[in-house]
Amino acid sequence: MELTKENISQEILLKAFNHMMLAKAMADIYEENRNTTKYVHSTSRGHEAIQLATAYQLTKDDWVSPYYRDESLLLGIGFEPYRLMLQLLAKADDPFSGGRSYYSHPSSREEDKPKIIHQSSATGMQTIPTTGVAQGIKYIQEFNLQQFENNPVVICSLGDNSVTEGEVSEAFQFAALHQLPIIFLIQDNEWGISVTKEEARTADAYDFVAGFTGLNRMRVDGTDFVESFEAMKNAVDFVRNERKPLVVCAKTVLIGHHTSGVRREFYRDEADLEKHRAKDPGNILRKRLLESGIDEDLLKQIEKKARLEAEQSFQKAIEAEDPKPETVEDFVFAPTPITEEVGKRVPENAGEKIVMVDAAIHAIQELMWKHPEALLYGQDVGERIGGVFRETVTLGQKFGNKRVFNTAIQEAYIIGSTVGMSAVGLKPIVEVQFADYIYPGINQLVTEISKSSYLSGGKFPVSNIIRVPTGAYGGGGPYHSGSVESILANIKGIKIAYPSNAADFKGLLKAAYYDPNPVVMLEHKGLYWSKVPGTDEAKTLEPDEDYILPFGKANIILDADPTEIEKGRTLVIVTYGMGVYWAKEAAKSFDGRVEIIDLRTLIPLDEKLVFERVKLHGKCVVLTEEPIQNSFAEAFAHRISKNCFRNLDLPVETVGALNLPAVPINLALEKEMLPNAEKLKVKIAEMFTL
């Protein structure tokens, strides 16, 4: 795009010089006090000009995602050195993370500043959540859900080497396809830790993005503040007015270390350092100010004052309190208002029973009619087929393609974009087509979503619903039959539901909607339509619209005979999903001697009920569809054993699939691998004879 020249006031130039001297003084002080600044950190030395030029364009309606070298950007939008140093030293009053995260890893909802979602250290991964912010803002403006003083602009800052990450391309693609109001600010200092540009890439970002039709681009010398200010003024004005995406490729230099832990002398020679120092943004701006008639004594005074301010701030930050150890578990989840079962599970005029897939469709439909901030997207969920299992059929027709729409095959984007959508006040319901294909999205789930509430001190819990069809359903084969709950259950900071029937599905999905935290709904494909033999009871009468079933409440779905319990002749099966139906079938062979608990949610887990019932029966089987070794079921069996040890007659047993890397497609092989009622009966009979 073409640049227009702007007149830059002397006031702005001096403001920039002051911020550059502050950034330099801070970097120098950190280096001089290496024993005190013991946590790994980066500084913005060499990048100050483009960062400040960007910061000065932003309003309180805008959003920005700085990366870990962007302290000058933070200074430019109004964060004082003292507040930044609180994070540097991991102090309790660190405004971003409360002492939980690295320096220059911000998150902010401060009213007078641009907003900043949680920022991680995973380079390039911020592009998808930040593009999600822009996606959300476009949606809000299209449906007139909120008024802004200025059209919001979203800025995603990243280093040049992170552009080679595949997830960055997913963000570029989505931003270009949907014409989102976002600027990707790429700061190119030609280094990726010790990796040179020649080792890492065939082209710089400007040339790389040329293939993304609809993605505008510009180059700028990011070491020259005047040129950078003019470029970023044009860039922000363009996106604010035209509502189109733009890539700004800013050439910068790296004067400091990569980080305090990976020091420049480890991998850079003196010639390279001298080349970069020659383009120090502070020196370039100083020269320009002197040429314009600014007195050199004034500049020296600014530099001296900046050093003094940085020293005083640093000393004050050192003296600030550390976090209290007892706060270490704060902010993993935001408090949920859904704590009790409410509404009518079995209405008076319920009519015929419905299948699970209809419970999901009806629940989402009711929510979307009621809440304009709700939207649904994923692969093939749109109007044409409504999901490969018809699990969203009719929704596209009813709500239009701006609220229910297809995406490309981009699991990382589908999942990670919910971070930004949630941050701006929307409730994204997204779908991964098969559990076997969730793995490309695990990075976003672990790195961004699960940590967002905890590392932002509760400012940015991610409120989303991620629907994942899971499990085997007869001949689906190795890439359409997998179970993934153990992998997901090992991710701290997300919730997991696993309903086994239509009524639970509807109630849990409603609870997930009103929960401010990230929720994965594991939906067994074999239960969607009750076509798998023995699963007819997954059909239920449909609960009312107001029915909500809270997470963490397991359900006893089959009681043992009290007389048999009294004789010590019973056991309890703890299971979920398809396991419920294997357990029900197996229990028929042991009249009155088996109790079945349906967990319904895996995180949170109703350990209280399980421990109570295991202590009563003295014998327990944990049943899962997953390969048993190192599984969620095996881990839970250990916790049951530990908590119920004195009341157990036998070790807690686990039943699950064979320890194979995939579900084979041949039906006979699949049957041999997976658990079923017959295999469970053998285990139960064995336990009753011991």
Task: Describe the model.
By secondary structure, the protein is an alpha/beta fold. The protein has three domains: 18-320, Rossmann fold (3-Layer(aba) Sandwich); 353-541, Thiamin diphosphate (ThDP)-binding fold, Pyr/PP domains (Rossmann fold), CATH 3.40.50; 555-689, Rossmann fold. Helices cover 40% and strands 13% of the residues. It has 25 helices and 19 strands. Strands 9-8-10-11-13-12-17 form a seven-stranded mixed β-sheet, sandwiched between helices. Strands 1-2-3-7-6 form a five-stranded parallel β-sheet, with helices on both faces. β6 (216-221), α9 and β7 form a beta-alpha-beta unit. α4 (81-88) crosses α12. The longest helix has 24 residues, at 296-319. It is elongated.
SSE blueprint and pairings:
Layout: H1 10-32, H2 48-55, E1 63-65, H3 71-76, H4 81-88, H5 127-142, E2 154-159, H6 166-178, E3 182-188, E4 191-192, E5 195-196, H7 197-200, H8 205-208, E6 216-221, H9 225-242, E7 246-251, H10 270-277, H11 281-291, H12 296-319, H13 356-370, E8 374-378, H14 395-399, E9 404-406, H15 411-423, E10 427-431, H16 439-455, E11 464-470, H17 485-489, E12 495-497, H18 502-514, E13 518-524, H19 525-528, E14 555-558, H20 562-566, E15 571-575, H21 579-587, E16 594-598, E17 601-603, H22 607-617, E18 620-627, H23 632-644, E19 653-657, H24 667-673, H25 677-689
Parallel strand pairs: 1-2, 2-3, 3-7, 6-7, 8-9, 8-10, 10-11, 11-13, 12-13, 15-16, 15-18, 18-19
Antiparallel strand pairs: 4-5, 12-17, 14-16
